[in-house]
Amino acid sequence: MNRNSGTRETKADSIHVHMVVGHSFAGSLKLALAQTVGPPSHELIVLEEHYAIGPLGGLDSREGRAARSQWFGAHITDGGKAYDHFEEEYTILLACISRIPPQAEVILWAGDNASEQAGLRHSLYLLRDKPNPVSVYNACAICEKLFNRPEAFIQYRHSGEIPPDKLRQALLTIDGSGRLTLEERSWLEQEWLDIAGQKGNLRIWEHEAVTEVPEDYFDGYLLEKLDVLREPGDGLSLKAARLLGEAIGYCEQNIPEYFFEYRLRELVNAGVLEIHAEPAAMRYYSIKRKSVELHTRGEDPDMQQAGESGSQPPGIGKAEYSLEATPQNQPLQLQTPRLLLKSGNDVTSEAVLDYFLRNKEFLAEWEILRQPQFYTLEAQKQMLAEDKVNSERGQLVKLWLCKAEEPERVIGSVALSNIVRGAFQSCHLGYRLDGTEQGKGYMTEAVKEVAAYAFQKLGLHRIEANVMPRNLASLKVTEKLGFYHEGLAKQYLRINGKWEDHIHMVLLNEEME
């Protein structure tokens, strides 16, 4: 679990202040704003909490924040470390809100999920003494309306799943229709007080309301997914990461991986699952069925009847499973005949900075405009840290390329970004290569390996690469690997200060039904 300092200093001349829940959405919105409105008259304030998880009672008091920190420390992997500076972070958040200039409109963003909706209500409570006009917009709903088609439909579970290019279009639709009345503000502030008065540690979005449910609400769902992935009697191990990925991918609620990890540990403690090592981080273990005895509800007198708990879906009864430790607790690293593909954990920020400095002029034609700050060690350290957060959230796989004979020298990168699960099972592909290594087949070799990983290990169905028509070398890479031309997007991305057309090149996992 990771938390980064998310608040930013609000400037006296700001005309819009955006308040969002979560760093993933904040990063995409920041980029979309930069591409849309230009000068920094729009500021961001980020609420770091995942409001669906953990106690919220008394969050606006020091005692309540201490209780939340203690709960995460006791139940969530690395939760105590993540909340080491919670009190300081909260003080900074309050200071940023207090300094919102009176002329600024406050724009709150919230998708239809418990975390963002509770965060929206908390934001309004924190703004209760500010006279600024406040508007509310749902980026998920806007983008679904703008881009969904009968043949290509995405239902976003949270705003962090939306890529910056789509957010850019969403920003252009803002017309003032989201402005809240004083009565609406007061009503939503009271809803926050109701939420904060609850005693539980898990919330879902149901019937247009943030609803408290028991902590074991998803336990049956996890076991059901395990039943689907491994049939009774199957002795093969299943990576716990696969179970968690499946659970997250198909869950209609926005529940973080670390909560599902916590529930697996609780199932171990309850004797439903069995493990042969200390489950400090469940994603590093394999899971297989030990023995199974399934009953329908009503057949097993020990099972609660439907409606009493809501913790298990119909059809799931008692089951025992086994978790076995595997050596998979190492950072991801792939290898081709000539290349090592390393995660950010295995490269140094100095090596990454050296790569960008060497290729500053060469890459300029093909990438967004870079500020001077980008070419500093501090910026590269921050980038690697942000990549790690997004990787742990399952939204990014980024690998740095090194030649086998020069394992410490970075010559490029390949990334699977904007990974979306559920019905879509898709991602975007991006890659870059050292100018002195062009024409040697390195990128074709690397992308082939990463695409195989995306299909065979991540279980994705679609990889989309967006390539400028004049970037013939990049088009050649995708064509060699079987990507097909899906269409042309006019003025799709702002590259080197200019809006550029891009060709959608797509590769499908033909082995998936």
Short description:
The strands form four sheets. The chain has an eight-stranded mixed beta sheet with strand order 11-12-13-14-15-16-18-17, sandwiched between helices. Strands 2-1-3-4 form a four-stranded parallel beta sheet, with helices on both faces.
Description:
- The chain is α/β, with parallel strands linked by helices and about 525 residues long.
- Helices cover about 35% and strands about 20% of the residues.
- The protein is built from 16 helices and 18 strands.
- It has helices spanning about 25-35, 60-75, 80, 85-100, 115-125, 140-145, 165-170, 180-195, 220-230, 240-250, 255-270, 350-360, 360-365, 375-390, 440-455, 470-480; strands at about 15-20, 40-45, 105-110, 135, 205, 210, 240, 275, 285-290, 320-325, 335, 340, 395-405, 410-420, 425-435, 460-465, 485-495, 500-510.
- The strands form four sheets. Strands 11-12-13-14-15-16-18-17 form an eight-stranded mixed beta sheet, sandwiched between helices. It has a four-stranded parallel beta sheet with strand order 2-1-3-4, sandwiched between helices.
- Strand 11 and strand 12 form a beta hairpin.
- Helix 6 packs across helix 7 (about 165-170), helix 9 crosses helix 10 and helix 12 (about 350-360) packs across helix 14.
- The longest helix has 16 residues, at about 375-390.
- Residues about 290-330 have low confidence and may be disordered.
Main features:
513 residues; alpha/beta; eight-stranded mixed sheet; four-stranded parallel sheet; 16 helices; 18 strands; 35% helix; 22% strand; globular
